[in-house]
Write a sequence for this structure.
């Protein structure tokens, strides 16, 4: 049952990811999108529906771990899987969960580690400031957890002091997924690659 709901979320996620360079939502969606918690990007919203099926129980805790490994394709834009972290949170709240009952954790590894570099390092690499840092900071301040794979940092020779202070360092992405699975988190992959 949880996979059906996640499939629906991923379907809309794919639609949004195909429009990653769009600044605004399409005109036909204006006035039809809600932003229950996060409003920091046009595509973190939830299209209003009259859904009466598969509503969340307000007393249940919903836990999701999101796998983030896409490479930075446009250094001036928010990394699309990070946008989906906020959108999934909004979808859970829109479907009836309370903000306090939604637990979301993002695990960053692979080429996505470039999206969490501090501005000074990101600027050396891409010649622009990191557009992901304030977004991550906003999500972290609203209860979303972020962890990076320590193995990935070591393999790429990326010093811990060069990444955002809002991202914790785990020994590995693999052990983080194992631990969070044991704690009842549902795994979601929202990457384009």
């Amino acid at each position: 049952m949880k996979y059906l709901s996640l499939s629906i979320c991923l379907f809309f996620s794919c639609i949004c990811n195909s429009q990653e360079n769009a600044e605004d939502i399409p005109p036909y969606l204006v006035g039809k999108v809600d932003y229950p918690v996060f409003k920091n990007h046009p595509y973190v919203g939830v299209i209003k529906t009259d859904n009466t099926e598969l509503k969340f129980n307000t007393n249940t805790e919903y836990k999701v771990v999101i796998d983030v490994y896409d490479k930075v394709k446009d250094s001036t834009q928010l990394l699309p899987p990070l946008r989906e972290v906020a959108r999934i949170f909004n979808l859970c709240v829109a479907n009836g969960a309370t903000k306090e009952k939604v637990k979301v954790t993002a695990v960053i590894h692979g080429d996505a580690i470039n999206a969490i570099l501090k501005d000074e390092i990101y600027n050396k690499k891409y010649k622009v400031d990191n557009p992901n840092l304030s977004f991550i900071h906003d999500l972290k301040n609203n209860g979303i957890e972020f962890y990076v794979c320590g193995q990935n940092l070591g393999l790429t020779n990326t010093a811990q002091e060069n990444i955002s202070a809002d991202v914790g360092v785990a020994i590995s992405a693999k052990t983080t997924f194992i631990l969070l699975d044991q704690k009842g988190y549902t795994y979601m992959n929202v990457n384009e690659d």
About this structure: The domain at 2-52+62-189 is CATH 3.40.1260.10 (Hypothetical Protein Ychn; Chain: A,). The chain has one domain: 2-52+62-189.
